[in-house]
Amino acid sequence: MENSENNTIRPSFGRSFSKGLEILGENFLPLFLVIIVVAVIQAPIQIVRFTVELGGFNLFVAFFGLFALAYSFLVVPVFDFGSDLIFIHAARKQKIDFKHLVSGFTGNYLNIILANLLVFALVMIGIIMLIIPGIIVACRLTFVSFLVMDKKMEPITAVEESWRLTKGYGWTIFGMGLVSFFIILFGILMLIIGIFPAIMWVAGSFATLYNDVLTVKGELPDIPESE
């Protein structure tokens, strides 16, 4: 049965967005709540950024700037990575468990923080090298957060594994990223509130691609029968 499924699935741009839309329809309310929580967690960073732009530089702004920097690297990634795991479970039609949003604080915290820092550093180095290398690195490391959460990989292992898994899918990921930008832009134009289903659709699509790539390679982790 597993071999048959592996032979019929073809990870692709169209299938990913089609399944992403299906995930959106099947789990709208719980995934909507996940996105709302992540947006609330990210809000302080945007507030500080807006304050800096309006107020210029002073000691008050400098203090909150440092706070926002620490917050963005030490708190936000846990919720971002947790939401990625929830979308993977939705793609596999598993039960959505909100505890995964915060489970990283107790079970996988160091790997999450270090993996996020490593990907950020590698992408920034690539961008400094005339931008295009940064885009390539970002595409090839798309699966890092999934692997850290789904397979409990350490940062360097997750980076290496993401690079291996995305081989041959670089253009697919780039195309999905480009289209995702316009989907989210359209969501913003739809009275702003449309950004939430847009983000849910995009997140479900990338989770589908990750799951499909693992499936065709026969590398899906064991899924508990109860889920």
Explain the overall architecture.
With 227 residues, the chain is mostly helical. The protein has one domain (11-214). 77% of the residues lie in helices and 0% in strands. The chain has helices at 2-8, 13-26, 28-55, 59-74, 76-91, 104-107, 109-128, 132-140, 144-150, 155-165, 170-189, 195-216. Helix 3 (28-55) packs across helix 12 (195-216) and helix 7 (109-128) packs antiparallel against helix 9 (144-150). It starts with a helix and ends in an 11-residue tail after the last helix. The mean pLDDT is 90.
Descriptive tags:
227 residues; mainly alpha; 12 helices
Work out the strand percent. Answer: under 5%
Q: Helix amount, in percent?
A: over 70%
Q: How far is the N terminus from the C terminus?
A: 19 Å
Q: Sheet bearing the most strands, described? A: none
Cα-atom Rg, whole angstroms?
18 Å
Shape: globular
Structural class: mainly alpha
Instruction: Give the count of structural domains.
Output: 1
What's this, in brief?
This protein has 12 helices and no strands.
Q: Mind sketching the topology for me?
A:
Blueprint: H1 2-8, H2 13-26, H3 28-55, H4 59-74, H5 76-91, H6 104-107, H7 109-128, H8 132-140, H9 144-150, H10 155-165, H11 170-189, H12 195-216
Helix pairs in contact: 2-12, 3-4, 3-5, 3-12, 5-9, 5-12, 7-8, 7-9, 7-10, 8-11, 9-10, 11-12
